[in-house]
Fold:
Amino acid sequence: MVYRRTPCPSSPNSRSPAENFLGRPLRSTLSMLNPPRSILKNRDEKMEQQFNRHHNARPKQFEPEDLVWVRDYRLGQTKWISGKVLLRLGNALYDVLVNDNIVRRHANQLRRRETDDTPTMLWDDFDWPQPSSPSPSQSSSSSSPPSPSQKLPPSDNDVPAALRRSERHHQPPKRLNMDPSLKSYV
Structure:
């Protein structure tokens, strides 16, 4: 097998004897480790776009000197701290400068930051509504619900709700008494 597969410089086009005979290279265990070229080239872009649309996936790419929020995994610290991208390593890893330390983070652990004075909460990235501080006119209105510290006067209609219990009658289990003289145990 090795002889038939080895390229020969004296054969036409410097191909192996088997390649000259069959017109294609022979498959071996070594050649089967490499993925076929057609699979690498053909990427189903339509399916990828549909997946990204369905799962709300957005491409995350950061350039050096970009301002980012970095996920902090230390206990007792805020979850997101500010940082600056120093270097991109591969497709998704980045070296980020955080508080004069260099940390390596995945793109999923980074969020884009616009300016230095952005609040530390990441409401926009998680599609949460931003909490609004109540204005003085809203706080004095009577339409707001009472706070838990304020007690309402008891009304005549306040009746304690009856506990819901099961009406099922519990019977003790019927144990099996082994008696060989009986033909049935039902």
Q: What stands out?
A: Helices lie at 2-5, 17-22, 37-41, 45-54, 136-139. The mean pLDDT is 76.
